[in-house]
Amino acid sequence: PDWVEVYYPFMKATVHITYKAVNNDPRLLREFVDDAYRLTSKHQIKAYSIDEALVTTPSGKTAVIEEIEGEVPSQFQFTITDSVENFMRGALYFNTKVQNDSLAPAIEYVKKDIIHMLNTLEWRDH
How far apart are CA 75 and CA 122, in angstroms? Predict the structure, then answer.
């Protein structure tokens, strides 16, 4: 119940999204953030660079967007939280051989969708 996959069949791409309740617990939030960082840092072996941006969405949520360059399995990852009740993490994967140069247009296409999702995300009451 706490994860969903957004599938782009024409690109063989999937955005894996996980949701976790923070429950107004700063230690829990820190655990979720640290776990997301560890998952992204696993790509450092093959990454040329990991560009990270901290942004605030129009509705006041905090998002971290990570673009990973190199022959890595996930080229775009993100987290978003309201820091009190909700935390969400996502990662883009392609079900093809890693060839990021040829995947660049598809990565950019899905990235725009994800940015739109982050900027319009609304949390529902549980």
Answer: 25
Higher pLDDT, 72 or 33: 33
DSSP of 51-72: EEEEEE-TTS-EEEEEEEEES-
Q: Which of 48, 44, 45, 83 is nearest to 64 (CA)?
A: 83
More reliable by pLDDT, 16 or 104: 16
Q: In residues, how long is the chain? A: 126
d(CA 111, CA 63): 14
One DSSP character per residue, 58-112 reads TTS-EEEEEEEEES-S-SEEEEEE-SSSEEEEEEEEESS---HHHHHHHHHHHHH
Give the whole-angstrom CA distance, residue 60 versus residue 53: 15
Q: Which two tokens stand for residue 121?
A: 């995300």
Amino acid of residue 104: A
**Prediction pTM value:** 0.87
